[in-house]
Give the backbone structure.
Amino acid sequence: MSRLKACFDGLKAQDRRALIPYMTAGDPHPDATVPLMRAMVAAGADIIELGVPFSDPMADGPVIQAACERALKHDVSLRRVLELVQDFRARDRETPVVLMGYLNPIEILGYEPFADAAAKAGVDGVLTVDLPPEEASELAAALVAANIDPIFLLAPTTTSARTKTICAAAKGFIYYVSLKGVTGAATLDVVAAERKLTEIRACATIPIGVGFGIKDAAVAARMAKIADAVVVGSAVVECIATNAGDFKAAEAKVVTLLREMREAMDSRGANARVA
């Protein structure tokens, strides 16, 4: 059983939702990445989404763009990201790690060599933002052969027909982008997200996570009522950015945010699903 499936199965048995924080690998410095990942787990994270720095992160807003720039100044490549995951695995064999990034670095490495290296490092899922499922068969096959889940995005504008295509291709979980625009762009519409998740569940056989626009504990708790997982990105990266010169201060800010979200999501009101 994959770590992602085991994680979601365990949470379902407890009537809890997954908290998935995002951070950009190497931000604010490569030496801070693994300690931050471990601190996230201690603060209540169930799955970690680790961003692969890229020079043109088209789906990301200014907060995560700046994080990529900070990481790239330290020459954090895809290979370096895999090394960081391997370092994390030295002490944590259970927490799933999902890489989120763009296709170019993977193509440069090659699909099968990337999948093999990612599996050896301990990666559990890969979300390639700019690779639609219609064009993803070769990479998806390499990932599945290496026991890594290919994860795909769904948007508010995704048609019913394409939703079925994505549901058929995705493994691990489906990532629903709750708003139109880039990361951190706006506050999400929970009612609209609930309607869309109902549509997705009609054909999905795996958990559904919701991300983009989740800024605080109150919003995380509301989303925990309708989704299987809550993904928080820009809010975490902002905590890091405002303390980029002090790793311990950045870690403390992230821990406080995630603990607040975890507590809110686990509250009695958050556990009563409305979808």
